[in-house]
Amino acid sequence: MKARFYTVEDQTNGTVRCGLCAHNCLIKAGRRGICGVRENRDGVLYSLVYGRLVSENVDPVEKKPLFHFLPGSITYSIATVGCNFRCRHCQNFEISQYPGHHAGEIRGRVKTAEEVVAAAMAAGCDSISYTYVEPTVFVEFALDCARLGKKAGLRNILVSNGYTSEAATREFAPSLDGSNIDLKSFSDDFYREICGARLKPVLDTIKLMSRLGVWVEITTLIIPGLNDSEAELSQIAAFIAGVDTEIPWHVSRFHPTYKLTNTPPTPITTLARARDIGRKAGLVHVYTGNIPGNKNENTLCPKCGAILIERTGFISRQSGISEGVCRNCGQELAGVWK
After folding, report:
1. Rounded mean pLDDT of 235-257?
2. Rounded mean pLDDT of the chain?
3. 266: which residues sit within 8 A by CB, 6+ positions away?
């Protein structure tokens, strides 16, 4: 399928400029962008993954993670191959890096947007999630699914690295209801060396998504020795608070994977320190994740301290909240509620 968000840079040799993400790839005829799934064919950019799904699952929305978005609901999660990042710690590298690891091969089961929406409805889902890899790379299909889903009464969720261009973000936002954006570090060196990207576009996307009215939650995977200093965690917390103190911040535990197998798991004490840093910066909701038996994923009322939502793993129980309002004191909680 013909891609969106590109311009022809040179009519004589057919070079195009992709404007989908902040890489702004200059792609010669016969070549692909960094994501490996958008190809220039004689001066026309094509998406190689439209409707070619490698993953379709029914997930609890808490797995995204989204804690203030229809808690207790299930979401229909889809993905294609490809990604515009090269994270050394990617837990889904088998699909995100598939084209690069298989000489450019594209795989996936061909589905229509109508089939995705129908499957989500049949499974009893309240939403569709574009996730697992960076969903920006299959934006054409995601947009078609999101718009059809909206008409059918489904919400739409983007789980993203935040590297989407402003134009693509503005196009996608009206169809989105929630987004979890990874803020992997507050260091441009980290982004360049660990992810093959830059920091500023991610910060810009977080601010823009929030301004456009999409419910945003942020996740930071804390990796020992790479992004776990008190100074850096304080910078991340201050940035989030500067956008909106009610944005939930998920600080997650790293486990060795992919190209970072020699890096140890994050100490629990580091996550506790990050939680304290977030609260000190003024963030109302800071959650620690990837910890078995974790009790710090419950949602508390910011006014009276009552437990509003109890969580065990990905299972939640809304014991103290009704339609986003604390049953004990009447405090309204920011988020998206049934």
Report:
1. 98
2. 97
3. 222, 223, 224, 228, 253, 254
CB atoms closer than 10 angstroms to residue 57: 15
Strand pairing of 215-222 and 178-182? parallel
d(CA 202, CA 206): 6
Structure-token pair, residue 324: 């986003």
Identify whether residues 41 and 128 lie together within a single domain.
no
pLDDT value at residue 294: 77
Percent with pLDDT over 70 in the chain: 100
- Asked whether the whole model's pTM tops 0.70, one would answer yes
Helix, strand, coil percentages, rounded to 5, for the chain: 30, 25, 45
Whether residue 185 sits in one domain with residue 121? yes
What is the maximal distance between C-alpha atoms in the chain? 69
178 and 265 in one domain? yes
Q: Interior CA angle at 50 toward 47 and 56, to 5°?
A: 140
Written as one string, the DSSP assignment of 186-236 is: S-HHHIIIIISS-SHHHHHHHHHHHHTT-EEEEEEEE-TTTS--HHHHHHH
Closest CA to 171 of 53, 3, 48: 3
Four-residue CA torsion sign, 76, 77, 81, 82: positive
34 lies in which domain range?
6-47
Domain total for the chain?
3
